[in-house]
Amino acid sequence: MRTIQITIDEPMLVEVDRVTQQLGITRSAFIRHALQLALKQQKISLLERKHREGYAKKPVEAGEFDIWEAEQEWENL
């Protein structure tokens, strides 16, 4: 692991310290977790954008998935 230096505003630092104290973790652990979540969300956003672009380039055609209708099972809720 590497040590880095970051700058955040005072109100955010106060909130981070409050939450880390409640959770019983360090600032570093909290920030690492927040960065992991941000990176995961970024990856999801990229995949969703690619998915949208793919369907924009080649939209679903009418009847394209009709063959699978008999395979579906829907529970009565």
Descriptive overview:
- With 77 residues, the protein is mainly alpha-helical.
- The protein is built from two helices and no strands.
- It starts with 9 loop residues before the first helix and ends in a 20-residue tail after the last helix.
Concise structural overview:
The chain has 2 helices and no strands.
Helix content: 55-70%
What's the SSE pattern?
Answer: HH
End-to-end separation: 49 Å
Number of strands: 0
Rounded Rg: 22 Å
Structure class: mainly alpha
Instruction: Tell me what portion of residues adopts beta-strand conformation.
Output: under 5%
What's the mean pLDDT score? Answer: 92
Domain Ribbon-helix-helix protein CopG: 3-42
Organism: Moorella mulderi DSM 14980
Pfam families: RHH_1
InterPro entries: Arc_rbn_hlx_hlx, CopG, Ribbon_hlx_hlx
Secondary-structure map:
Layout: H1 10-23, H2 27-57
Write a concise keyword list for the protein shown above:
single chain, 77 residues, 2 helices, 0% strand, Ribbon-helix-helix protein CopG domain-containing protein, CopG
